[in-house]
Amino acid sequence: EMFMMASGPMTRPMDTEFNSLERAKYSGFWKDDLQHGLGLETWQDSSRYEGHYSYGRKHGLGQYKWNDGSIFTGNWAENKIFGLGIYKWLDGRSYEGEWRQNNMEGLGIYRWKDGRVYHGEYQNDKKHGYGIYDGKTIEKHGLLGNGKQHGLGVYAVMKEDRIKHWLGEFAGKC
């Protein structure tokens, strides 16, 4: 549907049901008895992956839908989320940005359903480095460490028609 075919010699697509612990079904291209090229894999719990495979592993552009309604669309490498992609949770939250080894890693934008937004750096799935948090009445610019405000930053609160600013060191959660 939304993916282009991988290049290279492949056999024709065929459906196969795997007898594994997860009881998966695969429909797509094969090479040397391994999933290779464009394919669709579904599991008994209703999870599904549609995208590119390389020698039996998710690799390249693909979309994974979990049985809880969460969806990741983006790049994969060696069966792991890697590179650029968008993860959407069923409750309305989303993260768009860089990934490494299934973790948010690098630059990204995290959005909450209520309109709050965080633009910044991530390390090991946590806010880390420089970031900007834009809430409905609060805005924070500064450094973060291990998911918490830490280091030099600016904190602004909007009340009525005025904005109060603080400049200083963050130490822990504000």
Helices and strands in order, then pairings?
Elements: E1 14-17, E2 24-31, E3 34-43, E4 48-54, E5 57-65, E6 71-77, E7 80-88, E8 94-100, E9 103-111, E10 117-123, E11 126-134, E12 138-145, E13 148-159, E14 162-171
Antiparallel strand pairs: 1-2, 2-3, 3-4, 4-5, 5-6, 6-7, 7-8, 8-9, 9-10, 10-11, 11-12, 12-13, 13-14
Would you kindly provide a written description of the structure presented here, covering whatever features stand out?
- 0% of the residues lie in helices and 67% in strands.
- It has strands spanning 14-17, 24-31, 34-43, 48-54, 57-65, 71-77, 80-88, 94-100, 103-111, 117-123, 126-134, 138-145, 148-159, 162-171.
- By secondary structure, it is mostly beta strands.
- The protein contains no helices and 14 strands.
- Strands 1-2-3-4-5-6-7-8-9-10-11-12-13-14 form a 14-stranded antiparallel sheet, with no helix packed on it.
- The radius of gyration is 21 Å and the shape is elongated.
Summarize model confidence as the mean pLDDT: 82
Q: Give the CA-based shape.
A: elongated
* Spatial ordering of strands, largest sheet: 1-2-3-4-5-6-7-8-9-10-11-12-13-14
How large is the radius of gyration? 21 Å
The largest sheet, given as strand count, sense and whether it forms a barrel, is:
14 strands, antiparallel
What fraction of the residues are assigned to beta strands by DSSP? Answer: over 45%
How many helices? 0
* Backbone structural class: mainly beta
* Strand tally: 14
Uncertain runs: 1-10
- What is the N-to-C succession of helices and strands? EEEEEEEEEEEEEE
Query: What is the terminal separation in angstroms?
Result: 46 Å
Helical content (DSSP H or I, runs of 4+): under 10%
